[in-house]
Amino acid sequence: MAENSTTSSSTDGPLIDTPEQATSTWMGDGSRRWLYPTPSRGFYWYARQALGWALIALFTALPIIRIGGEPAVLLDVINRRFVIFGAIFHATDTVFLMLFLLIAMVSIGVITALFGRVWCGWGCPQTVYLEFVFRPIERLFEGSEQQRKSLDQRDWDFDKLWRKAGKHASYLVIALGLAHTFVAYFVGWDALVRWMTGPPGEHFGFFFMMAFTTGLILFDFAYFREQMCVTVCPYAKLQSVMMDRDSMIVSYDPNRGEPRGRRSREQRKKEQSGEDIDLGDCIDCGACVRTCPTGIDIREGLQMECVSCTQCIDACNDIMHKIGKPGGLIRYASEREIEDDESPRFLRPRVIAYSILLVTLIGIFGFMLTRSQEVELDVLRTAGTTFERQTIEQTPMIRSRIRFRVRNKLDAPAAFSFEARSPEGAELKVIGPPSYRLDVNEMRRIEAFVFVPESAYRDSASVEGTFAVMVDGTEKRTISMPLPGPEPSADSTDSTRN
Ligand code: SF4
Ligand code: SF4
Fold it and tell me: Quick one: pLDDT band at residue 496, thresholds 50, 70, 90?
């Protein structure tokens, strides 16, 4: 573990002594401490591996498979159109997007409060691809951790050259595949295939974007690695506010393990015969530290760098099995369980509050989704206008100028037209063509005159006008607005009342 800086008492030396190791992955002189974690293949490793491959298949398939004719997930930022499991959102669906983000954030809050950084160790693409794709390729070309370490330290020769070249060439192929998958989330699989198979000169931007994304992925998985989790990802910094003493985290049990220490032959004999040797179960073998992909020692307690990958659990369980002791010296446990020997409490105020909020948000989201419209529609009276009297075919009418704002939220272009539905005898005359063809997500403002028989204003100076929007000849939505008119005269009011 990192040593703390100490103030120097010497007047000749530096004021502050620099620790040899500043963090688990950086030395005091600012150089990177390259990690060579040894994989520990135990129960959790195989469980994570199975889940990891299922997730890799899912991450790859999501932009390709179709639900209702749309990609399962499409984040078309340029056209501001988002498809998530068949539901289509536009940038104007601010409430939906906000709710979706809130649901994601509160879900992370609930999961973190219950199980700590379980997402980081089990589901995050950074961990999944690094542990189950890139590191296995590295082991294939460069061998075990000790072999890799000595390979890195020795001078260049043909053996080192072909191993490094083979590894990086394989990384490049994988990174290209990942970059295409990543870009497919934003442009859609069809466009991606069109660009890939079209003449390169016509899609220069695509090639630039692909090269840039591939470069970033290569940099991340070949060099940056655990730094993404310990220095860049904001989740690590937020976890402490989301967790409490009852969160289930990967923990070392000092009550059982301390005082730690290696055993002499004599002590081993005594221990095997059941005698007390004044030592805890931790034999200080260092297997949990050697396997840690972020280079920390879990025996020092919960640290920001821990990604909850459970590798130290598998490593220690294996050691415990070898020395004939029960596993679980490092295990999933809450701080309360470790420190106070109490059972974990799952139902607690924080979890209940997060869960109620989550269920409420999902409920609102689902309710709004079922009511979401295929046509976005507003209607207003045109600013600065008032009603006018007009006689049409000997019927006195009140004419008002109104404006529709309509957006096509269907999945295909369509023809939009409008009709008046009420009050009785009302007519609508659109200024311009009787119908407008709108592309997907296109918005148009359409001016119109509405004619209402003057008799409709017998009882009131305003009547409710209702208009229908027709899409390809079929009524899709109606919308209402007040239509001011003349004050009812005393005569007409009296005659109505009588
Ligand atoms: S693997 Fe277990 S026994 Fe070995 S040092 Fe870690 S905690 Fe102690
Ligand atoms: S301390 Fe254990 S769980 Fe945490 S990152 Fe290291 S190996 Fe994984």
Answer: very low
Tell me the residue type at 282.
C
CB neighbourhood size of 413 (10 A): 12
The helix-helix angle for 135-142 and 145-153 (nearest 10°) equals 70
Q: Is there a single domain that holds both residue 339 and residue 380?
A: no
Under 8 Å between Cβ of 213 and 179: yes
Mutating to test ligand 1, I would choose from 252, 258, 288 the residue with most ligand atoms within 8 A of its C-beta, which is 288
Task: Report residues whose beta carbon is within 6 angstroms of any ligand 2 atom.
Answer: 250, 291-294, 296, 298, 306-312
| Residue 374 burial class via C-beta count within 10 angstroms: exposed 0-12, middle 13-18, buried 19 and up | middle
Considering the entire predicted model, what is its pTM? 0.74
Question: Do residues 42 and 173 share a domain?
Answer: yes
Pairing of strands 87-90, 330-333: unpaired
Cα 262 to ligand 1 centroid, rounded to whole Å: 10
Same domain for 171 and 269, yes or no, is: yes
**Is there a single domain that holds both residue 306 and residue 169?**
yes
For the chain, how many residues are written? 498
383-392 pLDDT, tens digit each: 777 788 888 8
Verify that 343 and 390 share a domain, yes or no: no
**Structural domain harbouring 410:** 375-497
- Give the dihedral of Cα atoms 238, 242, 243, 249; nearest 10 deg: -60
